[in-house]
């Protein structure tokens, strides 16, 4: 009887452990989802107040060849929250709000920041750093949530969704490759990054993870692409090459 009782207790314990392990990723995902929303709401307030109260300083930073590249992080946050509401929040209205606002800001910044940076001969070798990757990475993030709109609309609206998503991934990915070559030129022929900019080297992980996930999501939702396997292979190869390149940096 004792053996049966112990066996039953151990079985219940094992089931509880398995149930905990099964539910713990979902609990962690919900916790991070709430944390993301909270942090975004907290950081959005000073970001907006700075534009309202210290407009001149905000514009001055927007004209800086290094600091200006960090402005699209706000729009990237909106796009990430749109993906969170798809997977965890299950709220289509919030998905549309965050994705539309994030996409508009991302496209605006992706045109504005390079134009401001390169319109004059004021860019020096010291200004070249991986923070330049932020605008193209923001474009790459657009299809992660935006690809879910493809096929859910009709007529011209569906074609607009297709164009925006493919524009985001295509332009962002190839602009990143161009800027990567410029940064590699700086790393080889110039001084190392200063301490304040050294952490920006991890921005290379953006195209590796977000670029691959974005491409796979986009291809899976595109009904006009019949043979999807070559694109999956391209995503895997590009992921491997960029991951190896990031490790070498």
Run of helices and strands: HHHHHHHH
CATH class of the largest domain: Mainly Alpha
Query: Which homologous superfamily in CATH is the superfamily of the largest domain?
Result: Voltage-dependent anion channel
* Unreliable parts: 1-21
- Tally of structural domains: 2
Shape: globular
How confident is the prediction overall: mean pLDDT? 81
Kindly state the number of beta strands.
0
Portion in strands: under 5%
Instruction: Estimate the helix proportion, in percent.
Output: over 70%
Determine the CATH topology of the largest domain. Glycosyltransferase
Gyration radius (Cα, Å) is 22 Å
Main beta-sheet annotation: none
Question: How is this structure best summarized?
Answer:
With 249 residues, the protein is mainly alpha-helical. It has helices at 2-53, 55-62, 73-89, 92-118, 134-146, 156-189, 205-221, 229-248. It is built from 8 helices and no strands.
């Amino acid at each position: 009887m004792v053996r049966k009782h112990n066996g039953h207790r151990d079985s219940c314990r094992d089931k509880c452990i398995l149930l905990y392990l099964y539910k713990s990723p979902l609990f962690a995902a919900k916790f991070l989802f709430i944390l993301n929303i909270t942090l975004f709401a907290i950081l959005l307030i000073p970001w907006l107040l700075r534009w309202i109260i210290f407009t001149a300083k905000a514009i001055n930073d927007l004209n800086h060849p290094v600091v200006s590249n960090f402005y699209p992080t706000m729009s990237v946050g909106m796009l990430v929250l749109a993906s969170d509401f798809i997977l965890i929040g299950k709220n289509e209205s919030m998905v549309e709000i965050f994705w539309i606002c994030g996409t508009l800001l991302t496209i605006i910044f992706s045109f504005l920041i390079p134009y401001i940076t390169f319109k004059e001969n004021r860019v020096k070798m010291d200004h070249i750093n991986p923070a330049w990757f932020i605008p193209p990475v923001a474009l790459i993030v657009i299809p992660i949530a935006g690809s879910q709109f493809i096929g859910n609309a009709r007529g011209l609206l569906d074609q607009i969704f297709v164009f925006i998503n493919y524009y985001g991934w295509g332009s962002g990915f190839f602009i990143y490759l161009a800027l990567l070559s410029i940064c590699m030129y700086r790393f080889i022929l110039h001084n190392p990054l200063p301490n304040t900019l050294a952490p920006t080297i991890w921005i290379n992980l953006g195209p590796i993870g977000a670029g691959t996930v974005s491409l796979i999501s986009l291809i899976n939702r595109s009904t006009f692409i019949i043979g999807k396997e070559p694109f999956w292979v391209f995503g895997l190869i590009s992921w491997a090459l960029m991951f190896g390149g990031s490790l070498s940096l």
